[in-house]
Structures are given as C-alpha cells and as structure tokens.
Write a structure and sequence with these properties.
heterodimer, A: globular, B: 84 residues, alpha+beta, 3 strands
Chain lengths: 154, 84
C-alpha cells in the first residue's frame, strides 16, 4: 500500500522536472527492476498523465529530477498489433498473460524531421498490481528504435 | 579482460549458475549457448548500447518535447476558438 508520505515525495520531485510547466495527474510509482538502459542506477520512477496532453504521459525519475521521458501506451499504436511480450519477460515481472501487462513506448524528437519517433524495439512493461517494471528488448529485427509517429498521431 | 581459448563443445562457467557453451565455430562467426537464471538479462551488446543511447537521447529531448506539446496545444485551442 502506498503511504501519503511516499506520494508527497513523488509529487515534490516531479514538480521540479522538465515537464514542470505541465500539470501531472494520476501518478503511479514504478520500480524498474534493472534500472533503465543508459540510466542503470535509477530504479524509481513515476508514470503520470500530462494534463491536457492525453494520451501522452511522463516517465519521470524520482531519484534524479532532470531525467524524464515522454511515453505513450503502446496499445494505442497501430504498429503494436500482433506484438507480444515473451512469457519469460512477463514471468520476471510476476505476470502470466500479456493482457495484464501495461506496455509503454518511449518517444523522442527526431533531430532531422522534428517529429516524434517511438522506440518500439524496447517497450517498458509494467505490472500495475505490483508497480514493478522492466524495459524489455524484443528480439525482432523488424522493430525499430525510431518508429515514426507521423501516421500514428493522425 | 580475462581471455580464454575454447573449442566447439567446450564451455565456460561464470559464477555458480551461468554457463556459456561454444556450439559451433567457423572463420566468420561463433554460435554460443547461454544457460542463465531467468532473472539474468542477456542481450546482444550492440543492441543494448543502442537502447542506452536512445533512452539518453529521449531524456535529452524532453525540453524540446515540452515545447512541441505546448505548440500542439496552442494550435488545438486556436482551431477550437476559430470554430466557436
């Protein structure tokens, strides 16, 4: 059970982030079991909706306020149809079925086109019942780390 | 770096529960098998490094993402006011 103190701590940290100008709602604590590739020392994050910018969400480090990413529910993307998380990866998070896992992809801005791209090669898979998550690297050569969001956002 | 010489069919043990076996070798590649506990993540290193770089780039672009989102929001509000 989440205590009031823990929620207050997360809220304080997120108010100082790069998304500080945009109010956050519905914050969920996320414990990354292996850290995040590139930020292996960071294990505690919050996932929060960006008020007025649904379906975009913020994935914000609690330990280092300068580390945050824009994410979106992977199931909202047409390209996600038919992509399954391997049972081994689900089991690590205490999940039995892919349907019970929340899946998010990290977005960034492509320097050339100035458009959003999504890393569909490595989704963040989250067990909402326990708050435990992992960035799963899918063994599928057809999945890109820079999938264009141009046709996904229309 | 520890360097060991192994032949096809031989293996290396790391700690108590990780075994790396040489399954096949040729002049161009090595085929290896890895036995490790389920909670030990095993990745092709170049792919892991690519994901590391992508995550760092995504975090670095957050300020720019914020500006783009604010721009999108202004555009939506402007479109709504024109319609009303």
């Amino acid at each position: 059970m989440t205590t009031q103190t823990e929620v207050s701590t997360a809220a304080t940290v997120t108010s100082e982030t790069s998304f500080g100008g945009i109010p956050m709602m519905g914050m969920q604590k996320v414990a990354m079991i292996n850290g995040l590739p590139g930020f292996e020392d960071l294990h505690n994050f919050v996932l929060a909706e960006l008020e007025g910018y649904a379906p975009f969400c913020a994935f914000q480090s609690v330990e280092q306020s300068s580390i945050s990413m824009l994410v979106i529910n992977a199931r909202l993307l047409s390209v996600w149809t038919g992509i399954d998380i391997p049972p081994r990866e689900l089991a690590i998070l205490g999940l039995e079925e892919s349907q019970t896992a929340e899946q998010f992809v990290i977005l960034k801005i492509d320097h050339g086109s100035q458009e959003f791209t999504a890393n569909i090669k490595a989704p963040i898979v989250f067990n909402p019942a326990t708050g435990v998550a992992n960035q799963v690297i899918l063994d599928n050569a057809n999945l890109s780390v820079e999938h264009s969001m141009k046709n996904e956002l229309t | 770096m520890l360097i060991l010489t192994r032949k096809s069919g031989e293996s290396i043990r790391i700690g108590n529960n990780i075994v790396i076996s040489i399954l096949e070798s040729s002049s161009r590649y090595l085929k290896i098998g890895i036995d490790a506990p389920k909670d030990v993540a095993v990745y092709r290193n170049e792919i892991y490094e690519k994901i590391q770089a992508e995550n760092r780039a995504a975090s670095a672009s957050t300020a720019q993402v914020n500006q783009l989102l604010q721009g999108l929001n202004k555009k939506i509000k402007s479109n709504l006011s024109e319609k009303s």
